[in-house]
Amino acid sequence: MLDIQTLCLRAGSFEAKQISFSVPVGGCHALVGATGSGKTLVLETIAGLRKAQSGRIYWFGQDITTLPPEQRKLAYVPQDLALFPHMTVRENIEYGLRMQKNLSSGKHAEIDKLAHSLGISHLLDRSTKNLSGGERQRTALSRALAPGNKLLLLDEPFSALHEAMRRELWLLLKTLQQQYGITILIVTHDMEEAFFLADSVTFISRGSVVQSGNKHHVYQCPKNTEAAKFFGVQNLFSAEVVDLMADKVKLFCPSLGTTLHVTNTSSEQLQKKSAVTVGIRAENIVLKAESSVDESDHLVGANQFFCTVKHIYQKRKGKILLLQPSKGTKMEILLEADIAGDSFGKIPAFFVGQELLISLPAEQLFLFVD
Ligand SMILES: Nc1ncnc2c1ncn2[C@@H]1O[C@H](COP(=O)(O)OP(=O)(O)OP(=O)(O)O)[C@@H](O)[C@H]1O
């Protein structure tokens, strides 16, 4: 296991404090957070390029906190890849083994096999200067894996690549992980990448861990408003607690001009009149078919209200609608609804200015006290 225990570090005026998380052997863990939150500094400290102020780093039961980088038995691929431009692809890949004075004829065969697995056999004698982005990534991964270390640290490895190439390399990385039994710690901004590659995630903000755990749990139960925003809860609004019931909490949300019932929430920290934040993912907003809207508006009640369509964005499949609540506080509050292709049977056409009845299902609402 890679076990990071209460790691503290400093770079200039920036401090990362009490960073703790663990990655089981053979697992993949994603370190995520906004730009400047300290992800690279944490990775560099684990790699041994930066000194920890306090805390411990264990890899496979060994305390590696103070070991020099070359004794940590790990591979590190920095954001800029740091390929040697004056060397060929093969010389780059062999570099680590040469440093370890471990380049036997058997190792040459292993490198050929590794290059084959990474699809760069035909590039081995080329200079790294004119490689494409994807070829550079494959070369950097080969160089990292060649010495046979089983812990791979990757700093935003695929961020500069276009979507199709990124997906191809995700699949390649998964295959290599299984083939070579590698444990991976990856820094990424990209939630899709984190969810595709990793089993667990740690979200850090301003140098502190906000939430760490299984990726599904973190996605389904973000700990606070900041984590919710980061994990894709696009719609977040201030509200006030009106009533606490056994199975739900009743809120009033001025910006939406409506009463909301929220289930799936613990009311322990709540009191009547508590200020809270309520949120919903864009894909969980439900549009009601026009035929179900009664002229007397009797359908409009808790969790259901009319909105006007302000903007429509086309997606590859479906649409994003930006909706203004008709009875809200008339501030420029917009709800983002992500309408999948299969909803079009209900409402065949959308247009700006259209009035729609929407529903925010009580069990899909998040409630935060922060
Ligand atoms: N050597 C340094 N001296 C002073 N400050 C530094 C140094 N290195 C990094 N920082 C600062 O520390 C903070 C965290 O940097 P870090 O590179 O870890 O962020 P990050 O989360 O990896 O960001 P990004 O996602 O943009 O790469 C930033 O504010 C950065 O400017």
From TrEMBL:
<dbReference type="InterPro" id="IPR003593">
    <property type="entry name" value="AAA+_ATPase"/>
</dbReference>
<dbReference type="InterPro" id="IPR050093">
    <property type="entry name" value="ABC_SmlMolc_Importer"/>
</dbReference>
<keyword id="KW-0813">Transport</keyword>
<dbReference type="InterPro" id="IPR003439">
    <property type="entry name" value="ABC_transporter-like_ATP-bd"/>
</dbReference>
<keyword id="KW-0067">ATP-binding</keyword>
<protein>
    <submittedName>
        <fullName>ABC transporter ATP-binding protein</fullName>
    </submittedName>
</protein>
<keyword id="KW-0547">Nucleotide-binding</keyword>
<feature type="domain" description="ABC transporter">
    <location>
        <begin position="1"/>
        <end position="231"/>
    </location>
</feature>
<dbReference type="Pfam" id="PF00005">
    <property type="entry name" value="ABC_tran"/>
</dbReference>
<dbReference type="InterPro" id="IPR027417">
    <property type="entry name" value="P-loop_NTPase"/>
</dbReference>
<dbReference type="GO" id="GO:0005524">
    <property type="term" value="F:ATP binding"/>
</dbReference>
